[in-house]
Amino acid sequence: MTYGINIEDFQISFYINAIKYNTIIYKYEEKMSQETIHKDLSHLSESQKNELIHRYYENENVKALLEEFDIHVPLSKLVKLFPPISHQDQPCPNCGTFQYSNQKSKSNKMSISSYELFCLNCGHTNNPSDHCTCDYCLTLKKIAKERIEKERQDREKRIGKIREVIESVFNINNNIPLNFDELCFTHKVFLSTICKALLVENYTSTRQIQPLESFAYNKPLSPSDHYTTLIYSELIKHSIIIPSPISDITAFGWEDQNGNFNFLDNFPHAFCLSKTWYIINVTSEDGFDSLVKKLLSGNYYNSELCAKEAIVLWKDIAKQECIAYFEYQLSAVGFNIQFGKKTNIIIEKLLENFSVSQVYALIWKEVASASKA
Q1: How far apart are the first and last CA of the chain?
Q2: Least C-beta-crowded within 10 Å: which of 57, 142, 252, 338?
Q3: Would you say residue 284 lies in a domain?
Q4: What string of DSSP letters covers 55-124?
Q5: Whether residue 315 sits in one domain with residue 192
Q6: Which among 213, 199, 204 has a CA at the least distance from the CA of 241?
Q7: 174 and 67 housed in the same domain
Q8: Domain final position from 280, 301, 322
Q9: Does residue 159 belong to any structural domain of this protein?
Q10: In whole angstroms, how far apart are CA 132 and each of 11, 15, 94, 120, 352?
Q11: Are residues 233 and 294 in the same domain?
Q12: Domain boundary among 256, 280, 301
């Protein structure tokens, strides 16, 4: 598809004119052959110039040729004095006359590329870096600019429609905020963990949590990527955090080379956890600012109500830390990392009698011993 001007019709019109004025073109070629003779070769006859060029490409000594033909230029400059070569099978797309190329040094064995062609009549050049301003090239640029603008507008329309769906499904006004005091201790800890790392600075009006991918990789949110996914999944499952409509389109799918958007199954309810912005769907009787203070300070633990759940959560986090350390030690010595129920049970039993640091020491000792076996 083209926009504004049809490029095929545009090219054909030039070739028709070239055929129509064929006689004029040949007369022009004769005239041009005279005008392209360099002044440093103007004292030579036509036969002398042809002989000079022939002998140059026969690999005769350049210094001797310069002396014999009384030419006063550096050795490397001689080839630049030669008239350009016409290419009768390469008509200029702008005016229809033959295109030319400069003659190459005898040591240059590369064939002539289309970028080296130029027109002596209208000044057209095929080299993109020359920024040709002939009518033909200006028209091509105009067509390309119109096409790019049309594609940009079409893409914006597609994104706009996708954005409407996302904003409709995840409209904050359609969700009833949860009471923070009614959340279980584990969910409070999970929410607190995310807020400490990713809650925006001006949180009062937006309640926005930044995408996980914006968090520094060298400061993990939890002992492992698996456990971080579990944290997000739990909070999303219970609507404690909900995807924000301001999330980038790439959180819900990807754009291919043709500009078409491909979405995850069950769009827009399926999304990439790490690319999505979230809204805190929790409230407090004392206001949102008071809620954030509790989350950031951890001031929500009640020993009478939370003790048992806190111990279970601590054991789970401790186990994840030990597993992560075990994976690190195994990968450091090139061992295969495959954990299952057996590893989980062993680490759980160890934590019943040892602290995390003591389990670390046992893991280090066993891996070191196994690597030397």
Answers
A1: 68
A2: 338
A3: yes
A4: HHHTT--HHHHHHHTT--S-GGGGGGGSPPEEEEEEE-TTT-SEEEEPPPPTT--PPPPGGG-B-TTT--
A5: no
A6: 199
A7: no
A8: 301
A9: no
A10: 16, 19, 11, 13, 78
A11: yes
A12: 301
- Whats the size of the chain, residue-wise? 373
Which tokens hold the place of 199? 């809650």
Encode the chain (373 residues) as per-residue pLDDT tens digits: 444 445 555 454 544 444 443 433 444 444 444 446 788 888 999 899 999 999 999 999 999 999 999 999 999 899 999 999 989 999 999 999 999 999 999 888 888 888 899 998 898 998 888 788 888 999 999 999 999 999 999 989 988 888 898 888 888 788 889 999 999 999 999 999 999 999 998 887 788 999 998 886 667 889 988 899 999 999 999 999 999 999 988 888 888 877 778 887 788 888 999 999 999 999 988 888 999 999 999 888 887 788 899 999 999 999 999 999 998 898 888 887 777 788 889 999 999 999 999 999 999 998 888 877 6
Identify whether residues 176 and 277 lie together within a single domain: yes
The residue whose two tokens read 């640091």 is 357
Residue 99 is which amino acid?
Q
- 128 preceded by a cis bond (ω within 30 of 0): no
